[in-house]
Amino acid sequence: MKFAVLDFETTGNQSADEIIQVGLAIIEEDQSISRVYGSYVNPGIPIPPFISNLTGITNSDVENAPSLEEMMMELVPMLDDVVLVGHNVSFDFNFLQNALDRCGYLPYSGRILDTIDFLKICFPSLTTYQLGQVSTQFGIVHDRPHQADSDALATAHVLLKCLDELIGLPLITLQRLSELFAEEDSDLAWYFDGLCREKEKEPAQDLESHNFYRQLALAVEDWSDISTPRNDADDNPLKSMDFPQFLAEIEERLRAIMPQYEARESQSMMFGEVMNALENDKHLLIEAGTGTGKSLGYLIPAIYQSVKRESKVMVSTHTINLQEQLRERDIPLLTQVVPFLFKAAIFKGRQHYLCLRKFEHKINKRDFVNPKEDVILAAQMIVWLAQTETGDDEELNLGGRGGDFWETVSSDSDSCLGRACPWFRKCYYHRAKHEAGIADVVITNHSKLFTDVKAGHQLLPAYEHLVIDEAHHLEEVAGKHLGLHMKYFTVVHTLTRLYKDNRNGQFPALINQLRSSSDEKASDWAIVIDKLCGELVDVKEHWDRLNDMLFALLPERSDAAPGDTGQFVLRLQPTKKPKDWDVLVAIENQIYVSLGEVIRKSEKMLNDIKENLDDFSSDSLITDISGLIKDLSNEREDLHMFMALSDIGNVYWMEANGHFRSKSLQMYAVPVDVSKLLKEIFFDKKKSIILTSATLSVEKSFQYMIENLGLQESSDNGRLMTVQLPSPFRYRDQALLVIPRDFPSVKGSIGDALFVETLVKSLADTAIVTQGRMLVLFTSYRMLRQVYEPLRNALSSSDITILGQGVDSGSRSKLIRRFQDSSASVLLGTSSFWEGIDIPGEALTCLAIVRLPFQPPNHPLVEAKSELLKQQKKNPFMKLSVPQAVIRFKQGFGRLVRTASDRGIVIVYDTRVIESYYGKHFLYSLPGPKMEHMPTNQMVPRISEWLHEGDKS
Q1: What are the binding residues?
Q2: Greatest CA separation found in the chain?
Q3: Residue 96 in this model has a pLDDT that exceeds 90
Q4: Would 189 be classed as within a structural domain?
């Protein structure tokens, strides 16, 4: 099998565009690269500037290059009897066919393979499939990205790496892949069939490397074989060791493996404060800025407490990112330095774990909605099963529609067979649960913490001590989970998974199984199912109509961008229901009654089938259907509760965006004040709760958090300690905060022409001095979009790239990666960029804050909280808006200095920080940077001077 790896550079993406460069790498049967061919091509038209910027190919490069016909005379003979390969091959293939046709050759009719498919299948956990980044991760030299010969050679090396990986897979995995593709009339099917035959010729394979079960190769043994970290019969390893001794031993071991390790004052203080709270059953609010090392600051005391007292400590984070960081960085380090065996387990929400029973059923029955994409996703997972020890979806790069696929194979309590499932001892969720049960420290997330509360504490192991990291999010997460949040697709997904059409859905699948059953009742059940399907179609029609009518009530917000979630928002008030609300309630009532009937009949029929049929594949299907019926039942109750608008303690609202209109509708019912609930659920019940974050205080006071989280009583009776740790950084030397005092102000979320023009000029001038490396934070998408194009034009003659959230495609993490990878770029971001992103070192030199991050005062939740404060004779602006904005502002500021050697500038373009009576709250809350204000025209010289001072020092 000989491969020809092809790459074209062209004047654009359309079929009418011209080829400007070709690269071809030939891989021989012995997997050696025998030839790399490259040539410029004269396109006969000028090369667009953006293509020259991307590829580095200019008009002068192609001026004397061969014509298309001359190049094709050299290329065509090399394509004889080869398998054509490309990275996103359809692009190159279309240009090839077009060129063959134009130059009078027959079309290419050989086999075609795509390295992107291979990467997805062979390396399911890769975070990106972009050629440059994949080359870097694999250590492949790719010196001229976007030049055809360099791209072709890099792609050839990527292909070889994939083929190598495939050869190393267990035979059973390759056989499953071959079966999976067999029904696809594709070149991948041909390739895997050949690969399998080759592998089958080899002598007996290594059977020790994997656990083989039900025709799948797994990387893990049964979870029931996992034992406790220490032997129960042994003495407690901390029996005669106090905490200072324990800490001294850990620090000694840290120095042995990290010679540069030195104890930090703030971290040492944190060890003591956390330990004190845990030992004396106190609650603790502890603000620990960047660089404190707060993860170890609470984990080390937590391990000591749990092992010494034999009582589990629960740790909760807000983001899965931080959970992963603890798993990948902090826990492995502690495993090396803690002087005895201990266990820290990660336990996430159930939907993050793969259900092997559902997955097996899906691939055996080929239950695929989008066959082309789903087959690749299934292939990815078959390979992943031979690698993963957790079955956690965070390890997978599922891309595009992968989320929908995952939803159909993820674990959930309603369709779990428990011990009756043939996969029970291999189950990833039960493994995680078992590990949490025997662990000393369990790391979960806020979301799971509240799901556990709602499930009557059945999900997490019992605990008395809790550490809440990223605690400034606790109130918001509590509201979401202790309230209600429902989407249009929440109901649609459940309905269509039961019945989409006569061929798709769990009900039609059950009818098919019943047809092949010999049971005399089978035809009666099939009739019942047919009727149920008809009723589900009616429910779907009513649900669509209800959502259309609800969407029609929503006014558009002026400050949000088109397509932004929450672009359309409406608060619903029990005392002021919209006109004709009773018409909507009547439709909801119809849905309520119809679903009640569907649920009753389904449950009766399913119980009947269970008692009479004895067949595992039906069992599996019936379990899934029962789970979906339970989901429908919960959704029915939630909708009923929402439409009743009866609880005055809740704030009710709806949100949608303009792109998907009623299909993007979301319904919320959230408690206005969660402080009482938090007090009852956590602070009254648990012995000790430690809340930590880099942003808990406002102007050195914790009062805002104390009131909002329900800690006032604990504070009054001496059960609450508060600590603000000193920063380990020298902020006066490391950060300069500049305020242009004559900068134009702005009303609302859209800047006028003068504001935008002044802002663009100032950003462009600053970006040139800082050589890009700049993060600009906006509070609204509209303003970001107002600035994006003019700023790009202003910097077009420099080599500085502009990246805009929501303008340039890609998720937040992809944009951050692109920002870090490019030597000079300016990244424009809104809300989600204000926190949780870590860009240490040179990549970020300047942070620009365009406006103070106040929440829109007309957001239903802000509005309802403000009303409550007014009733209590308090000032909502000073009690709610300012503290919230200050905490966000501190989060934004915290993006700049991430290590002791970082140095940078913060520009605040909002003059309210120096002009208004509340501005000082923002500035006094910061950890002491050098602050200066000046006229706008003096700013760039001052920044330049300050950066050069840093170079000298």
Answers
A1: 288-295
A2: 90
A3: yes
A4: no
Q: Which amino acid is at 398?
A: L
As separate numbers, helices (DSSP H) first and strands (DSSP E) second, the chain gives: 38, 25
Give the residue numbers spanning the domain of 230: 210-234+340-442+455-463
Give the DSSP letter string of 428-482: HHHHHHHHHHH-SEEEEEHHHHHHHHHTTS-SSPP-SEEEESSGGGHHHHHHHHH
Q: What is the per-residue pLDDT across 273-282, written as a single tens digit (0 to 9) for each?
A: 999 999 999 9
Same domain, 816 and 944: yes
Whether residue 777 is found in the same domain as residue 875 = yes
Distances (CA, A) of 161 to 118, 119, 122, 138, 144: 10, 9, 9, 8, 20
Paired tokens of 13: 């993406």
Segment holding 643, helix H or strand E: helix 616-644
Q: Distance between CA atoms of 937 and 800, rounded to whole angstroms?
A: 22
- 647 contacts 658 by C-beta, under 8 angstroms: no
C-beta neighbour count of 870 within 10 angstroms? 12
The two structure tokens encoding residue 750 = 């859209």
Strand partners, 908: 849
H helices of 139-170, where? 148-167
Q: Flag whether 386 is in a domain.
A: yes
Distance CA 902, CA 775 (A): 15
Sign, CA dihedral 528-534-536-542, equals negative
The residues that bridge with 114 in the sheet, in sequence order, are: 86
Q: What is the pLDDT of residue 98?
A: 92
Tally of structural domains, the chain: 5
Q: Phi and psi dihedrals of 455, rounded to 5?
A: -90, 20
466, 686 contact by CB (below 8 A)? yes
Q: Do residues 694 and 662 both lie within one domain? A: no
Annotated binding site for ATP: 288-295
Q: What is the DSSP string of 591-636?
A: HHHHHHHHHHHHHHHHHHHHHH---HHHHHHHHHHHHHHHHHHHHH
* C-alpha span between 848 and 893 (Å, rounded): 9
Return d(Cα 146, Cα 9) in angstroms, integer: 7
| Residue 686 resides in a domain | yes
Cβ proximity of 387 and 173 under 8 Å? no
> Would you place residue 708 in the very low, low, confident or very high pLDDT band (cuts 50, 70, 90)?
very high
Do 344 and 310 lie in one domain? The reply is: no
* Of 800, 777, 810, 804, nearest in space to 789 by CA: 804
Q: Which band of pLDDT confidence, cut at 50, 70 and 90, is reported for residue 833?
A: confident
User: What is the Cα–Cα distance from 778 to 784, expressed in whole angstroms?
Assistant: 6
Query: CA-to-CA distance for 97 and 93, rounded, in angstroms?
Result: 6
Rounded-to-integer distance, Cα 664 and Cα 656, Å: 5
SS (H, E, C) 259-273: CCCCCCHHHHHHHHH
- pLDDT tens figures, 353-378: 999 999 998 898 888 888 888 999 99
Same domain, 58 and 148: yes
Do 779 and 862 belong together in one domain?
A: yes
Report the alpha-carbon distance of residue 791 to residue 809 in Å, rounded: 18
Q: Is there a single domain that holds both residue 252 and residue 331?
A: yes
Angle between helices 115-122 and 148-167 (to 10 degrees): 40
Q: Is 637 a member of any domain?
A: yes
Please tell me whether residues 622 and 705 are part of one structural domain.
no
C-alpha of 639 from chain center: 28
pLDDT digits (tens, 9 = 90+) for 906-946: 999 999 999 999 999 999 988 888 999 999 999 999 999 98
d(CA 704, CA 696): 8
